[in-house]
Amino acid sequence: MKSQKQSSTLARLRSYMGKKGVLMPFSITFSVLGNILGMLPFVCVWLIIRALFTQDLAASGSDIVRYAWWAFGFSILFILCYFTSLMLSHLAAFRLERNLRYEAMQRAVRMPLGFFTRNTTGKMRKVIDDNAGIVHTFVAHQLPDLAGGLTVFVATLVLMFVFDWRLGLACLVPLLIAFAQFYRMMGKDYGATMQQYMTSLEAMNTEAVEYVRGIPVVKVFQQTVYSFKRLYDSIMAYNKWVKEYAASMCKAMSIYTVAINGFAFLLVPAAIILILIGGSWQEITLNLIFYVLITPFFGQCIMKLMYVVDGYRQAGEAVGRIEALTDERQQLQTPRPLTMPDTYDICFKQVSFRYDDASKEALSDVDLSIPQGKTVALVGASGSGKTTLARLIARFWDAGSGKVTIGGVDVKQLHPDELMRHISFVFQNTELFKTSIRENILYGKPDAAPGEIDRAVELAQCRDIIGKLPAGIDTKIGTEGIYLSGGEQQRIALARAFLKDAPIVLLDEATAFA
Fold first, then answer.
1. Nearest Cα to 404, choosing from 412, 396, 422?
2. pLDDT tens digits, residue range 299-309?
3. Could you read off the pLDDT of 374-413 as tens digits, one per residue?
4. Lowest-pLDDT range, 31-40, 191-200, 316-325?
5. In whole angstroms, what separates CA 162 from the centre of its chain?
6. Which residue, among 316, 446, 471, has the nearest Cα to 6 in the 3D structure?
7. Helix crossing, 296-325 with 57-108: angle to 10°?
8. Angle at 24 between CA 21 and CA 29, to 5 degrees
9. Where are the CATH 3.40.50.300 domain residues in the chain?
10. Mean pLDDT, to the nearest integer, of 279-303?
């Protein structure tokens, strides 16, 4: 997606709609037409009232029936246009949401493995799912509402001055007050406010997901939510922000609500004055009734506009957050990748590395040589850099200074995909997919023969584990109450690594569940 950071929100959204983007102009057209048709039944009601005022009942009967049928017909057409508009906008919104998620996941798989240690699965799920939902809502509902709302607003404003410009002027007073408060609430600082809101909400949701996943540990040690400090702090920060924001908006929102619902307080005195100075009481009363019927549209239009402005900014923030999460600048760069060497000696030459959010280096001027075919165990205190050292070999990140080489070739010159084809990595906290054990093992080598799978199972000493399961190696993990312990999961991961048969095997905390 080219230059999306600098393009408008609408242009960025349009780029994700693909071919379905052509539906949005039609959706907006039907929304405009539908909103105009939605006003006409109120005009018909006024015509019925006028007929009752100006004609005797016998003469007005046929007119009343005709106007009633008109109102019914306009209402049906309004429903059809409204439904068509929503159907078209939803088709575009669903495609946009699908493409946004797909693009995010496509970019995620190109991220270095270190990216996934910095970003929890809870955070990634909330950022992608929630923000894609926000964008969907804006395109499916609020974007068509914008065109329809503006059309109704302009049409109502014109009708106000066509029927009686004097009563129209009376309507302008509360309208101007309402717009002043609207600008106050949605002014230049609103963008920063929404960004703060989204950040605060995202932090709370992310920590809530992580807390739910840690409930077994919390219950075992008889702790409460207060013991999960990050979640508690995020809830309190969100609570504080919401209270402050609500307090800051209270006065403006109160004045706006009174003004937008206060047309009658000015219309009735204005109508009385016009009658007292010689106006036709019948004509002015009829016009007053018309104004009472149409002025509520102003409130609806302004509220729609408020929600659309809010939705527009939220949609821009949402797309930005998804794109920022998997920013291509975070990807490891390999300008001119080399092929994997034939030898696999591993060397660290004065390697230093610091994590993004750390104040001190995790590794400093490390020199290490591991000959091909040798088994080396790294032993040290917690936090001494053992895991970091192993992950630099697999190029989770690039070293800050110095070089990590395999077969004499700097790993920075090896494409991450090529590098991972020659490395098996078994993590301390193993992740297995909710599918059969066979399919989990086959991720190491999808085209493996049954004999190769059996050999990998034997090497990882998984035979006893598999033998206890109801469907053996075809048992699906996570279904019908079947779960594996941490040690059993690590054995399955070892079988997967053995099946891959990579020349370099990295074990992170290999005895963690022994």
1. 412
2. 778 778 778 87
3. 888 888 888 788 888 888 888 888 888 899 999 988 888 8
4. 191-200
5. 45
6. 316
7. 10
8. 155
9. 334-419, 427-513
10. 82
* Predicted confidence band of residue 219 (pLDDT cuts 50, 70, 90): low
End-to-end Cα distance, the chain: 48
Confidence check: pLDDT of 68 > 70: yes
436, containing H or E segment: none
| Cα–Cα distance for residue pair 144/311, rounded to 1 Å | 12
pTM: 0.68
Q: Tokens standing for 160?
A: 């106000």
Q: Quote the CATH superfamily of domain 427-513.
A: P-loop containing nucleotide triphosphate hydrolases (3.40.50.300)
Distance, CA of 112 to CA of 122 (rounded, Å): 18
The secondary structure of 189-234, three-state, reads CHHHHHHHHHHHHHHHHHHHHHHHHCHHHHHHCCCCHHHCHHHHHH
Neighbours of 15 (CB within 10 A): 18
Query: Would you give the DSSP letter of residue 21?
Result: G
What does pLDDT average to over the chain?
Answer: 83
Bridge partners of residue 425, in order along the sequence: 506
- The total number of residues written for the chain in this structure: 514
- Superfamily classification of domain 7-163+309-331: ABC transporter type 1, transmembrane domain (1.20.1560.10)
Residue entry with tokens 């054995």: 491
The CATH code for residues 334-419 is 3.40.50.300
Question: Looking at the chain, which residues constitute the CATH 1.20.1560.10 domain(s)?
Answer: 7-163+309-331
Rounded Cα distance, 98 and 16, in Å: 9
